[in-house]
Amino acid sequence: MTRPQELRFRRHLSAPGLLKLTRKCFERIDDPVKGHRASLADNMMAALAMFMFKFPSMLQFDGFARGREALPELIHNL
């Protein structure tokens, strides 16, 4: 059995390879607004992750990404 450090991925036909290629494509898009904490590519990668994980809202995805459940009272206030 192979240990985790011995695993090798194909360059393009793997999840890490496809995500790297997708990020490079997102980085080529001109960001119309400069000076934000998160770049357009970062936001698009977050949207892709939200789509891949099938989250119904950005708030639920953010709670998952930060390792906590989204608070029901926050959802109710939206």
Report on the structure:
The chain has helices at about 15-25, 40-55, 60-65, 70-75. The protein has one domain (about 5-75). The termini are far apart. Mean pLDDT is about 75; it is low at about 75-78. With about 80 residues, the protein is mainly α. The longest helix is centred in the middle third of the chain and has 14 residues, at about 40-55.
Q: Layout of SSEs?
A:
Blueprint (H helix, E strand, L loop, with lengths): L14 H13 L12 H14 L4 H8 L6 H6 L1
Q: Features of this protein?
A:
single chain, 78 residues, mainly alpha, disordered C terminus
| Main sheet characteristics | none
Low-confidence stretches: 73-78
Number of strands: 0
Structural class: mainly alpha
Distance between the termini: 49 Å
Helix count equals: 4
**Form type:** globular
- Our Rg estimate from Cα atoms comes to 16 Å
**Topology as a string of helices (H) and strands (E):** HHHH
Q: Beta-sheet strand percentage?
A: under 5%
Instruction: Give the overall pLDDT as a whole number.
Output: 76
Helical coverage, percent range:
40-55%
Q: Give the count of structural domains.
A: 1
